[in-house]
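hey can u check if this looks right to u? its 944 residues, i copy pasted from the old doc so theres a chance i mangled smth
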Amino acid sequence: MQKNSMELLWKSSHISGGNATYVEELYEAFLTDPNAVSDEWRNYFQQLPRVSESAIHEIPHSPVRDHFAQLAKTPIRYNGPVSSDVSVHERKQVRVIQLVSAYRQRGHQEAELDPLGLWQRSRVPDLELQYHQLSEADFDTTFQTGSLYIGKDQATLRDIYDALRATYCRSVGAEFMHIVDTRERTWIQQRMESVRSQPQYGLEARTHLLERLSAAEGLEKSLGSKYPGTKRFGLEGGESLIPMMDAIIQRAGSYGAKEMVIGMAHRGRLNLLVNILGKNPAELFDEFEGKVKYQGSADVKYHQGFSSNVMTPGGEVHLALAFNPSHLEIVSPVVEGSVRARQDRRNDPIGDKVVPIVLHGDAAFAGQGVVMETFQMSQTRAYKTGGTVHIVINNQVGFTTSLQEDARSTEYCTDVAKMVQAPIFHVNGDDPEAVLFVSQLAADFRQEFKKDVVVDLICYRRRGHNEADEPSGTQPLMYSKISKQKTTRELYVNKLLDEGVITKELADKMATDYRQALENGEHVAKSLVMQPNSELFVDWSPYLGHAWDVSSDTSIDTKLFKETADLVNAIPEGIVVQRQVAKIYEDRRKMAAGAMPINWGFAEVLAYGSLLKQGHKVRLTGQDVGRGTFSHRHAVLHSQSDARRYVPLQNMSEDQPDFSIFDSLLSEEAVLAFEYGYSTTQPDSLVIWEAQFGDFANGAQVVIDQFISSGELKWGRLCGLTMLLPHGYEGQGPEHSSARLERFLQLCAEHNIQVCVPSTPAQVYHMLRRQAIRPLRRPLVVMSPKSLLRHKEAVSSIEELTQGQFQNVIDETDDIDKSKVTRMILCSGKVYYDLRAARREHGKDSVAIVRLEQVYPFPYDDLRNAIAGYPNLKKVVWCQEEPRNQGAWYNSRHRMTRVIRSFKPEKNLLLGYVGREPSASPAAGYMALHLEQQEKFIKQALKL
């Protein structure tokens, strides 16, 4: 076919009318031997739905094997003379089937996967003829092929053996027999065995492969000559990644994908940016030369993200390369979150239109736990994305570790993927055609089964960890071999020259043309769309350029409040609610009618309901968020008669925005990273992650440090994620008291995040509504309560919800004479109620208690206005439950002091501290000790 044959193939009506017979004949030939048709037609047929595949090829392996195994054990009886030859042949037939099974299971262990040829692999007895009591003497004997896809029902042992060796022991090693689903295993067997894992590609496909390899190598040579010794984490030794990515993107596009989100660490990132995503090389050169002016602090060039549009056989596809920090695998769940948000936006629950691709390093894939967490998410309701194509750029060296026994405890770095029964395709990176085959196979598997698939691109690293590193100090033998190793492009050029496919002049011209394009500053990504379809982008302009205190009206009219309250309290007939839950809903109806004050759980649910009524989407995930860890939310009802789930917030109206609420898997790191990725892609949604206990956020600290707190400054990436972290000292020990407020405050600068400690239901109501309604998109960290969820005084009125707004500072609310106040206690959170109870008990009307509800950005003006209302004030103290070295004291005292010192000198106000003594542990482990400490600092605060 000519150059544009694929485009014509997809756009013409060649499978109808007079061409139908011809196409049917081609298809029959393809079913017998896929290599008998051109690669364009083979690609087309491989993408057809496999509805009738079982009728053509499906011969279950186990029944055949069991049948012959039984024959081998049972003497065969005939009416005529007994034939020992028949019996021997039947027994050998069983062993042939066992041989086929052995190669499917363990053929990868003898595959030629290492480009350097250094692997020392143990002998695999299962793959030897003798192990199955067969020998070369049986080579000319004909056996039934069973489920082996070699185009015929019978074949000699020689043909069967050669087919198995070619399929499973050359440049591709496949692990798929751990998969339980028979259809998936059979599909992989058919795809590999029918072409011996070596499809016959046409001239166009092979020259395109060479061109992409020339691009990959050309960029590295150019950067190496222009900027010697400069860090770039080059792709030398793994250049096959570029044709691999090109093939997967084109394949996914042919299936109708409209967006693809890519996550990767450093290795090869710059090459991918230029040769796949289409970044202008001139811009990259400017970055190396320091000619680029950044906003904020920016990040190094091999952390930067990018987006572009490329053309595929199925139309235009938007590519997004995620920003990433140096924590190598943490970008994986971020990508999944971004993909899920895009799928939700496109109403794509299957995952046909948005596809995730995540690139990994071998050592990181094996060594970092977030990989396991991300795999475990892959098929769950809250986090599934229709399957991810995972590519491991396997340099065989993590950082400097060269010994496998130091790097991992498994045979392959990819073994963790078996936990979700993902197929794993190992491929020799120096065999570009095998790489192309595996790339298409992986894309097709993901499309067919909507499950994760792993490609282990086994290559090497020609330079050290970075270009300034000398690797021979720790890997002398490996780098002695690498110094003599021809590049992947050289090897492929020689192969094509030997086969007479190309001329040396053509190969040299490819390299020269690419180098010239680089020097001219031209785009070198072949399929780049220069005028992309703007409909594929999200409009973030309404959220740009706002100050942190941009105004927002979070009040609602009484009518909307009543409508919302009725809808969130409605339970249809047939849903039998558990007794305690029924009481909660009965009380909420009374609250809506004004017969009871509004508690925390109802205020929170009303916030979500009112936002939905006003057109805002809401997504809430975390461990046990449906009912709430402390059984206060009950947004998800479980019918006691049949276990049906009913969510009132999802049934407010037919055309309402999405309300998504999912109980998460027991993960913090991957889940929080997922929600971060989701929120950076869905600006019009309120996205919330709730920790079961606030201290559980410790397990996701890398997400907080590298993304949530600094993503905007480093990458210009806005994020409106909300984190609800239960926090409060109720005598439950060190691990269930503190959400580590001090850690978040230490990360605060340049108004990067919001840290709030709401103390009333009205406050949490307005805080959540403010986060969605105002155009500011900054992360919100909430020290949410535990005991206050049911505290009899932690309640609000209907008017406070309908007419109020979030208060950064809450002044004294008791009826005291401010002119008589000489001492002020500043505090946040639950301790307010303990202080107020003690003050009332002892009648200390000379003490005022002022609550700091937003700790950062610090509300200087609001606090100053509160203090100014006390003319005879002599002393201000900060009181906190946390030990002195924790909580808000060390990170906020200079801000409080600044406010206090702004008053006239004659006031001579000083700021003091009251609270627990410094401690290495967050809290006491015994209730008696907890109460003793609390009583002591409460007395000190009130000066009792």
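The chain has 33 helices and 24 strands.
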